[in-house]
């Protein structure tokens, strides 16, 4: 298995895990990976950035929906 394949597998696992902290840590780790070409590093980092953005947006939508459900017909007590 090539280094790029290993990195891609780690990125897949981090995305599937869904932990923003884990994805951010891998993003930083990839910044220092001298074995990857600049293009390959960028591609893998972009996959992580996209997953982080989607996860953050989804989390915000869930929070807004939760707040709306809690405040129907009144205020939070």
From TrEMBL:
Annotated segments matching region Disordered: 53-77
Source organism superkingdom: Bacteria
Stored InterPro entries: DUF2526 (IPR019671)
The name this protein goes by in its record: DUF2526 family protein
């Amino acid at each position: 298995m090539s280094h790029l394949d290993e990195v891609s597998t780690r990125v897949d696992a981090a995305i599937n895990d869904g932990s923003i902290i884990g994805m951010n840590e891998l993003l930083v780790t990839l910044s220092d990976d001298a074995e990857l070409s600049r293009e390959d590093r960028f591609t893998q980092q972009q996959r992580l950035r996209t997953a982080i953005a989607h996860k953050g947006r989804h989390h915000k939508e869930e929070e807004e929906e939760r707040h709306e459900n809690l405040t129907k017909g009144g205020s939070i007590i």
